[in-house]
Amino acid sequence: MPQFRLQMEVEHGILFLSDSGPDFEIPENTGAAFATLTKDCVCFWVLSSTDGEATIVLGDTDCEMEERRLFSGKIAAPSGTLTLSSSDGFNHLSMAVKPGMVSIDIWAENDRNPDWVWIKVATL
Fold this sequence. Notes:
- The protein has a single domain, classed as Substrate Binding Domain Of DNAk, Chain A, domain 1 (Sandwich).
- It is built from no helices and ten strands.
- By secondary structure, the protein is mainly β.
- Strand 3 and strand 4 (41-45) form a beta hairpin.
- The strands form two sheets. The protein has a five-stranded mixed β-sheet with strand order 1-5-10-9-6, with no helix packed on it. The protein has a five-stranded antiparallel β-sheet with strand order 3-4-2-7-8, with no helix packed on it.
- The protein is globular and about 35 Å long.
């Protein structure tokens, strides 16, 4: 799987990684933790545009800074495509995965407004 690196400004400091199907479910309380999830979506905090750009790395490799791992979980991707989107509904990136369950690990600079986030995606 290729590794993607995005520099982005988002109005609200939250992003969603979800199945690309039309009916994915967003977590009810996105502020409960750095990352929250449903069966087919994980949302996580990033730096908001008022504070600058956030760097997002997305691929299938671990981040070297193990002590910065803030989330591990699994979501369903029955469509075979994961989409990274912002709260305004804009799709920043789509990536093909094996349809089924996907393991997600997230590392970040901090747990509230990180200026970098590393996401490892692995199909199970």
